[in-house]
Amino acid sequence: MTPSPAPPAAVLDWGARLRLHVLEAGLACCAVEVSAAASRRLLAAGAVEAPFAEAPDRADVLLVSGTVTDKGLPAVVAAHRALPPGARVVAFGACVASGGPYWDSYSVTKGIGQVLPVDLWIPGCPPQPEALEQGLRRLEELVA
Length: 144
Hints:
Layout: H1 9-17, E1 20-24, H2 29-45, E2 61-65, H3 73-81, E3 88-92, H4 94-98, E4 120-122, H5 129-143
Parallel strand pairs: 1-2, 2-3, 3-4
Helix pairs in contact: 2-5
């Protein structure tokens, strides 16, 4: 049996530079897709041991996904305030962008962009795991 080839150096370097702090806001399909993307793409590639930062102050990216409620919004804002300078915000999915199919509910925030500066929007309901991977690669290009 031959050993698996090591991941390309660029993948390893990217994994060392860009850590994710995932904030899964509520119960939504997007949370499942974020988990699928992390396990299938980052962990399976062996590029990173732990694709998610342990705390917001150790993260380079805050990934907000799912339906953000007005009651849950302070937790999202607190996580954003705890980010180090230069950290980026990624909005993943229709619900976080506009409230999605719940836009007319009294308790749903009508888009995280009204509250936080979003650097990258990844559209979809829910976006596929590949969309997250492509979005993070695009974010890396913007940051580099």
